[in-house]
Each structure stands twice: as C-alpha cells, then as structure tokens.
Design goal:
The complex is a heterodimer of chains A (680) and B (73). Chain A is built from 22 helices and 16 strands. By secondary structure, chain A is an alpha+beta fold. Classes of the chains: A alpha+beta (680), B mainly alpha (73).
Chain lengths: 680, 73
C-alpha cells in the first residue's frame, strides 16, 4: 500500500522461429512491461527487431476498415455492443468481408455525393436565374441584336433614370420588376450605350450577368425546383440507407477494428526486441509477485525452449510504477498523479492523501449545512460525469470532504450555514442569531469552538499549527526512510530539519500555553497527570524571557542541534531549508484563516439576510429570503473552492516537498484493453 | 476606545492588507506563466499549481502578525 509493486527485470531469450508464439503468450498474460531495446556498439550482433511478415497486410486491412468507418461517420463510443464477439468468429473471412464492406460503403457514399453535387448545381442555376424571373422576358430575347445594347441588373435610383434617360434619347425600352430589390432590363440603341452606361452607374446600378439558355426563366425555375425536391427525397433515402448500413455493420466494424489493431500491435512488437540472425531478446519488467506464474506459463507453453534470466536491479535503472491500493484509496491516485506519478523508489502517499486531504478540506469548511451540500453536489458530480474518470474522482473527493465537514460542523463548531445552534456566549456584540433562538426551541448541539470569537480563533490557530507539525513531521519521517538507502546526506538533513520543526512547534505551544492548558484540563486526575504536571510541562516551559516572549530551553537545544546537523550535512545552503520549514509551518495557519474567513462571511450575510427577513415587512422579508439564499450559495461555492485548493496545496507543496520525487514511468503492460472482442 | 487601540487596529489592517497585495502581485505574474505552461503541456499542471500558490504564504505571515496585534487590542 505504501510502495509501488515490486518489479523484477527479466530477460527472455529464444529462437527466432518462436517469436510469434512468445508474443502471443506475453500478450495474453497482460502483465509484462517491455523495455524498448536500444542497440549499442558493445552488443554488436544484436540489432533492433523488425515487424513480422503479416504486419503490412494487417495494417493495410486496418487502414481500409478505418477509412470505411470514417466514411460511415462511425464513432467508437456511440453504439452500445450487446455482447463481445469472439476472435475466432471474427477471423472467419475477415479480409473478404472488409473488401465487401469497403465496396458497399464506397458505392453508398459515392451515390450520396453525386446527389449532393447535382442538387448544388441546380441550386446555383436557380440562384442565377432568380433575378430575371420577375421580368417575364424569354432569355433569348435579351441577346443577339446588332443595334441594341442590353443592360441587366439591380438599380437603386429608378426615379433618376426615368428623369434623365429621356434627355439622352427616346430610343430605349426599360423593363422593371415590381419587387423591392428593383431589377431592371434596359434595351437601348447601341450608339447611346456609353452615355446610358454612365448614367446607370451614377444611379447605383449593379450588373447581373445573363445566364445561358432559352425560354421563360419562371418555367425553368419551376422545373428545377421540382427536380430539387426529387433529389432531396433521394438524398434522405440514401442517408437513411447509410444509417441502416452503419447500424447493421457497426458491431462488425468495431470488433474487427479492435481485432486488427491487436494483430498489428502483436506484429509490430518485435521492434521493441533485440534480434540476432537466429534469436531474439526481450528485456522487460514483471511484478515480482507474478513472476513465478509468468515463468511457469512460458515454460509450459513453450516446452522449455525459452531462456529466462532475472537481472539485478541497478541504481540507475528506472523501473516502471504500478501502484497497488485498496479500492477507496485508488480514487486518490488521480489526485496524486495530477502532481506527478510516484517513481518506483518513492513512498506511495495515496493512502495518507486519502485520509488527510478530506480532513483538512472538511476542517476548513467546518459546517454541517455546507457539508451536506458538499455531499449532495459530490453525488451530482459523480452522476453527471460518469464517463470521465477525473471528474468522477473529484466528485468522490467532494463527498468525503462533505462527510468530514459535517462531522466538524456537528461536533466541533456546532453550526449550520454559518449560524450556531446555540447562541454564542459573549463578545460577538449586537444582535446574535442562533438556530435555537430562530426556531424557538433548544437544540442541544454546543459549539466547542466559536469561529467568530477571539478565543475560538486562537484555538483554531493552535489546531492549525498542531496539524502542520504532525503533517510536516510525518513528511520528514517518510523522507528519512526513503533517503536512508538512497542518499545518506539527505536523510541526515531531514533529521536536522525535524529537530528544527520540533523546536518551532514547542515555541509556539509555549506561547499558546493557556489555550493548550484548557484542553489538557480534562486529563487532571488521570494516570498521566502526575507525569504531565510534575515533569513534562515544567520541563518544556523552563526558559528565559526575551522581549516579553518565553523562550524554552528545550526549544533552543532542539533548534541549535537541528541547525548544526543541517549545516554539517549540507553546508551553509542548508539554512535555506531551515527557513523553508519555518514558513511551511506558518503556512498551515491557512486552515484557521479560511475557516474563520468563511465563517465571518456567512455570519455577516446572515446578519443582513435575517435582519431583512425578521423586519416585519412581507415584501422586504421575501427579498431577504432571496438575498440570503443567493449569498449563502456564494459563501458555499467560494468556501468549497478555496478549501479544496488549499487542502491540495498543503499536500503538494508543504507535505510532498519533504519526501516526494515523482516523475515515475507508468507501468504499461503489453496488452490491449478489449471492448468489443474476447479471446474465448 | 483609547486611541492606542485604534492605532493597533490600523496596524493590523495594514499588515494583512499589504501582505495580501504583495501576494496578489506575485500570483498575477506566476499565474499567467503557469496557465501558459499548462496549455502547452498538461503535465505542467501540478507544477504550475505549486508555483502559483507559493506566494500565498506571504499573506499568512500578514495574517499571523495581524492576529498577534489583535490580541494586544
């Protein structure tokens, strides 16, 4: 759970004629991560392998199939497959079927294309002829004159033409359409054509070219429109045919595409191998716990013709990472991988993340009302984004955080939507609402910590520092265990930093001795009490006063010791890390800051909203309800967003920096995730 | 209310206000660069987020000082 699965590097060596059978076997095992073979001078006879003979044929057929699927606009996600098809069934005449399919698809899509083309041409012609339809002059009458010039087109200023044209000549005839866009046809004696042209252009004339043909434009248009109608009917029919065809062949296409993709994957596998003229070498990672089984299967199926050798994992090797976590924790691997996949030698922090991330998130929200809303939205999120792994995981985080937020709201803060169940004891001042006073009966859920009082805020700050101390301490301890074997120097530095952290924490705890004293009070009279009050507390609190601040001796001892250890291990630069630990510990005060900021915002909005609602005026009251709902949603969304981001940040920055390296290589087994086919 | 209390309150306000401004200024630049990097390479998202939120600690220093002042009011 805390480490990625252990890997063993294994060499598989065999004779060339066995290569296909070996590939088959490895593919069916689905647990071997093959390392891409890099040829080197030192291993002269070994060269990169080449794809097997059938590779090109299979690839070609796959290409054909995919182009058919594309022509049919078949998307792999759309059809739901009733049951997986067995490979044997697919293998039967697959290539003949693909050829038939290709021909049918081509002819269908060709027909569709032809109809569309025809339709488009007619459309174009109608568009050209449309302006002339209104004038009712046969097309042949527009041309073929020796002494008459013809102008056809749109005109903006008909009045001006009617006024000025007679001044040029009276040897003309002007036809106009009655429609709004004012199409004209002007027949005029050729000798006046130039003058008429100038006048026309002054009146906003735009020429429209005469289409070819004979007869009345209206008749043409009628004829073509009928043709178009027929064509569109045909088009609908063809599209239907294609859809029908697609539906009928979808399963076959998807299944055989998958089958061929797998075949191609197998056929091209040798490019990952090292080859000599007569043998092959596969360099691979296999999880240690299944290694024995893999060996047995290979031994049995190949009748001992393969040679397997485990090689010792060297320091510079980078084994792939395969995480193993129980199901609920596995969802948090996504959050971890968003930062970086752990490398093989890292501790896998998914489990810690799955506990502490929602804990911090919940503490910052800390309200039963918002907690329940979080759970609700989390469920909604998971339902809405069922398909997307990332979003459904985020939904899951929100649900768990909601549970923690509700628990904190119920047992620690005793409030719902920023309003406490019981009236606050003191200082908030002015009007103080509570659920008990609003509903008129006593709800016995006390607020152990009042967010809105200075005492409560001090307590929250101390809780934050304690949380930071434990979290950072855990991070440093993990760091020490990881580095112990890899880099002794780093491990010693981390021990030094741990000392500094303890010194800082003790200093802060002594500063907050009154608050912590309150929490320890219930322990009085218990078995540990004599030890605590007679030895431990006086020991920790012994110190000197510096500017009104009590500096405990223990703190100084730890601090100085820590700094010396760090400087010895890493030199002067180590001091930067000391400063870093200090700022990281301070960084956890964001837990208190966001908790209080959100509480204060909700408190202020509640004062405004409830003030309006209880004002006695119905209209203002209704406005108050709307306003309050809106403001509460704002507090909720802002609070949830910032709490989530800050909880992530405390892990990514403060926690992970203490031990986590990341940048692992994903374990990528030689296999294909089958959706439509089975080997059975 | 004594004038000292008022001055302390102003001091607390300045402490957190100026720290918040400094954080915002730092985050503005880093945020723009981080989004750019993440747009080019999605793997940079995690790193980008870390750089982006680093300056937030500054505002928390302001908060702690403001709180220490507040307890003196």
């Amino acid at each position: 759970m805390f480490r990625p699965r252990e890997m063993k590097r294994t060499l598989i060596i065999g004779a060339k004629q066995d290569v296909e059978k070996t590939i088959e076997l490895l593919h069916s095992l689905e647990i071997v991560h093959i390392i891409d073979y890099q040829p080197s001078e030192a291993e002269e006879p070994l060269h990169l392998g080449t794809p097997t003979e059938k590779a090109s044929g299979v690839s070609q057929n796959l290409l054909k199939l995919r182009s058919s699927a594309q022509l049919l606009m078949l998307e792999p996600e759309t059809p739901s497959v009733s049951e997986k098809i067995s490979e044997k069934q697919i293998q039967r005449d697959i290539y003949l079927k693909i050829q038939d399919l290709e021909l049918s698809v081509l002819s269908l899509t060709e027909t569709k294309k032809r109809i569309e083309e025809h339709y488009r041409k007619i459309d174009e012609r109608i568009r050209q002829l449309q302006p002339f339809a209104a004038m009712n002059i046969p097309l042949e009458n527009y041309q073929g004159y020796d002494h008459v010039a013809v102008f056809t087109g749109y005109l903006r200023d008909l009045k001006k033409i009617n006024e000025h044209l007679p001044k040029i000549t009276d040897e003309y005839e002007l036809f106009t359409s009655d429609e709004k866009d004012q199409m004209i046809a002007l027949f005029i004696a050729k000798s006046y054509a130039d003058d008429a042209g100038k006048l026309l252009s002054n009146c906003g004339f735009i020429e429209v070219k005469l289409p070819e043909g004979k007869g009345l434009p209206k008749q043409f248009i009628e004829k073509w429109t009928t043709q178009q109608k027929e064509l569109s009917e045909k088009l609908v029919q063809t599209t239907k045919d294609i859809l029908e065809f697609r539906k009928r062949y979808a399963e076959f296409i998807l299944a055989s595409e998958e089958y061929l993709a797998i075949e191609v994957q197998k056929a091209e596998a040798p490019v990952l191998f090292g080859m000599t003229d007569h043998s092959f070498l596969i360099d691979c990672w296999i999880p240690t716990d299944v290694l024995q089984r893999v060996k047995e299967v290979l031994e049995k199926e190949m009748q001992g013709s393969l040679y397997l050798e485990e090689i010792e994992v060297k320091h510079e090797d980078e084994p792939p990472t395969l995480l193993k976590n129980p199901r609920p924790v596995r969802r948090f691997e996504y959050l971890l991988e968003l930062y970086s996949l752990p490398n093989y030698r890292d501790i896998d922090p998914s489990f810690i993340l799955s506990l502490i991330f929602p804990l911090f998130f919940g503490l910052m929200v800390g309200d039963i009302g918002y907690g329940i809303l979080l759970i609700f939205f989390g469920v909604l999120f998971m339902k809405m984004f069922k398909e997307s792994e990332g979003f459904s995981n985020i939904g899951w985080y929100i649900i768990i955080a909601g549970v923690f937020a509700s628990l904190f709201g119920l047992f620690l803060f005793g409030d719902m939507f920023g309003l406490p169940f019981l009236p606050p004891t003191g200082e908030t001042g002015g009007v103080a609402y509570s659920w008990s006073s609003l509903l008129g009966f006593h709800i016995p859920i006390p607020s152990v910590i009042h967010k809105m009082e200075s005492l409560g805020m001090t307590q929250l700050l101390v809780i934050s520092v304690i949380a930071g101390f434990l979290h950072l301490g855990l991070g440093l301890l993990i760091g020490v265990t990881v580095e112990r074997k890899l880099n002794r120097k780093h491990a010693i530095t981390k021990i030094g930093l741990l000392f500094v952290l303890i010194a800082l924490a003790l200093l802060i705890f002594v500063m907050a001795d009154w608050t912590i004293g309150q929490w320890l009070r219930p322990l009085k009279g218990s078995a540990v009490a004599p030890f605590l009050w007679n030895y431990f507390i006086p020991f920790v609190k012994a110190g000197f006063s510096f500017g009104g601040l009590l500096i405990p001796y223990v703190s100084i001892i730890f601090g100085v010791l820590g700094i010396i250890v760090v400087i010895i291990a890493t030199g002067g630069f180590g001091l930067i890390e000391v400063l870093e630990v200090t700022s990281h510990l301070m960084s956890y005060t964001r837990l208190a800051a966001i908790c209080v900021a959100k509480g204060a915002m909700a408190f202020a909005f509640n004062m405004i909203g409830l003030g309006l609602i209880l004002s006695g005026n119905i209209i203002i009251g209704i406005l108050g309800v709307i306003l309050l709902i809106f403001m509460q949603l704002m507090v909720f969304s802002l609070g949830a967003l910032s709490s989530g981001i800050q909880a992530v940040r405390l892990h990514y920055v403060e926690f992970f920096m203490k031990f986590y390296k990341g940048e692992g290589i994903r374990f990528n087994p030689f296999r294909y995730v089958r959706k439509y086919t089975t080997t059975k | 209310m004594a004038i000292e209390t008022g001055i302390i309150a102003i001091g607390a306000g300045v402490a957190i206000g100026s720290a918040a401004l400094a954080t915002a200024w730092a985050q503005k630049t880093i945020g723009a660069a981080a989004v750019g990097a993440a747009a080019e390479n999605e793997k940079m998202f995690g790193k980008g987020l870390i750089y982006m939120v680093l300056p937030e600690t500054i505002v928390l220093f302001g908060l702690v000082i403001a709180f220490l002042l507040w307890t003196k009011m």
